[in-house]
Design goal:
heterodimer; A: alpha/beta; Rossmann fold; six-stranded mixed β-sheet; four-stranded antiparallel β-sheet; 13 strands; 22% strand; B: mainly alpha; 80% helix
Chain lengths: 318, 210
């Protein structure tokens, strides 16, 4: 396994028995290998259904889903699932097993030799920021954040090329949530995986996604694109409302001051100072706060990089 | 005067333990098989429970009357009602235990590629242990108590010294008390043994919150 997988939804429709409206209506979506793709939408938009179709926890009605070109129906469901990481909001750790045994679940199902499993468990505990001693504890002894770390380690255990995550941070407090979001992004940058991540929270979608698929009620794909594309050009009123009226500011938050072309000529004597790491939205706030129409941009090394002017920010949003 | 312990009580105690363990052992095997069936095919869960409850309502003396013509005065006639009575305590507890796995745990397990057999052996059964042990404790205690009626069929169990003493014109109290105390002590001892075994089998519940 290992590496990342390309995943394609090809005209996927799902009806649940006893309901008139489809849960997912003719969804087509191509997710390139290595992408962090977020499925976002209100309740009833079929985002969790779309996720569970991939590992066949929900059976497919019409259309096809392909992972690296092979249909998900080609393998027995049990084998398919062992090759896909799965993380859910309630985590679902086995209460009767230690953390280490929980993490070792899929390698054991796959019949890995014991020393290999043991080494892999150690590696993963470290990867998700848990101590070696935590391996001997039971889930009931852990905090919510720690449990979801274990859930992530367990999903990554057999190095699957695809990770499905169903609102994994939905039950965590804001601070723990933000920390785990950043760690997951760091992890995604370090290990080559395709991630399919479900959330109802547009902020989380913008923070996490390389690509965002916005679904509307009735399981219809409203828009699929990068966070910047979606914020810059929402395709209709639904998307515009869903991303919020402050979408211009959200776009700016995606950019760092250091990434922009700066004005080299520093004519002003006193300007508020921004670091190259600061996002453009914060730089704009700084300008407003100090009644200035520019900020002086200084690198981590303390060397002045140039000036960011309000007019440049306005151009960005055009 | 004979030596009450060596002559009378000790062999009766051993018989009583035997009656109890055989009844609960066979009862457990049957209840376990039925519970697995009910777990697999939900529609049969309730009907099986009703049958177990109905069996429990048959008075033991009536059951003996029915069984003696077929099985005589031996152990089989005594064990059949004891086994039948144990089902009403064992079966619902085993079924409840098998259903005790939280839905998110089951979903995660399926999502990781557990087949139905692995789900049962590695998740559902281990999580059912506390409830199964609870059912066994109830069944053992109640069987120890009910097994005293075996004395109606002959010289066996701790019910016999009580039965004999009651037939005396002036009932000989010591026999009644001694045997009665032994029945209670046996029930408590077996219950405590199972409780300890249950704790040993459920290490995850001893730590933390569970």
């Amino acid at each position: 396994m290992s590496g990342a997988a390309e995943i394609v939804f090809d005209r996927v429709t799902k009806h649940y028995p006893g309901r008139a409206a489809p849960a997912l209506d003719d969804l087509s979506l191509a997710i390139p290998a290595g992408t962090f793709c977020v499925l976002v939408g209100p309740s009833g938009s079929g985002k969790t259904t779309a996720l569970k179709l991939v590992n066949r926890l929900v059976p497919l009605d019409e259309g096809d889903i392909r992972i690296n070109g092979s249909s998900i129906g080609d393998l027995p469901a049990v084998e398919l699932r062992r090759g896909i990481g799965y993380v859910i909001q309630q985590v679902g750790l086995f209460p009767h097993m230690t953390v280490a045994d929980n993490v070792a679940t899929v390698p054991r199902l796959l019949g890995w030799p014991k020393p290999r499993t043991r080494a892999r468990v150690e590696e993963l505990l470290e990867l998700v920021g848990l101590a070696h001693e935590d391996g001997k504890r039971y889930p009931a002894e852990l905090s919510g954040g720690q449990r979801q770390r274990v859930g992530l380690a367990r999903a990554l255990a057999a190095d699957p090329p695809l990770l499905l995550m169903d609102e994994p941070f939905g039950a965590l407090d804001p601070i723990t949530k933000a920390r785990l979001q950043q760690e997951l992004l760091g992890l995604h940058a370090a290990v080559e995986k395709t991630v399919l991540f479900v959330t109802h929270d547009i902020d989380e979608a913008i923070t996490m996604g390389d690509r965002i698929a916005i679904l509307r009620e009735g399981g219809v794909l409203a828009q699929y694109g990068t966070p910047d594309e979606i914020l810059a050009q929402p395709c209709d009123d639904f998307v515009a409302r869903f991303v919020g009226e402050d979408r211009a500011l959200r776009r700016l938050a995606l950019l760092r001051v250091g990434d922009l072309e700066l004005d080299g000529a520093v004519s002003e004597k006193t300007l508020p100072v921004a670091s190259t790491q600061m996002n453009v939205r914060s730089a704009l706030a700084l300008m407003l706060e100090s009644r200035s129409d520019a900020v002086l941009v200084v690198g981590d090394d303390g060397v002045t990089q140039g000036v960011l002017r309000l007019s440049r920010v306005q151009e960005l949003l055009r | 005067m004979h030596d009450h312990w060596g002559d009378t009580l000790e062999p009766r105690l051993v018989e009583h333990i035997e009656l109890t363990l055989i009844a609960v052992g066979i009862g457990f095997a049957i209840a376990f098989a039925l519970a697995l069936l009910a777990h697999r095919y939900r529609p049969v869960e309730h009907p099986i429970g009703v049958v177990a409850a109905l069996l429990f309502t048959i008075p033991s003396l009536a059951a003996f009357q029915l069984l003696v013509p077929f099985f005589g005065l031996g152990k089989t006639t005594i064990e059949i009602p004891l086994v039948a009575y144990s089902l009403v305590l064992l079966y619902p507890n085993i079924v409840a235990g098998l259903r005790a796995a939280p839905p998110d745990v089951l979903e995660a397990a399926r999502g990781m590629g557990f087949g139905p057999r692995q789900l049962l052996l590695r998740v559902e059964l281990p999580l059912a242990v506390p409830s199964i042990v609870g059912g066994l404790r109830l069944a053992v205690v109640s069987t120890v108590s009910i097994a005293t009626i075996a004395a109606f069929l002959g010289e066996q169990g701790l019910g016999y010294p009580i039965f004999l003493a009651l037939k005396e014109p002036t009932p000989f109290r010591t026999e009644i008390y001694a045997a009665g105390v032994l029945v209670v002590a046996l029930a408590l001892a077996l219950d405590a043994t199972l409780a300890l075994a249950g704790r040993a089998l459920v290490p995850w519940a001893r730590k933390g919150l569970a």
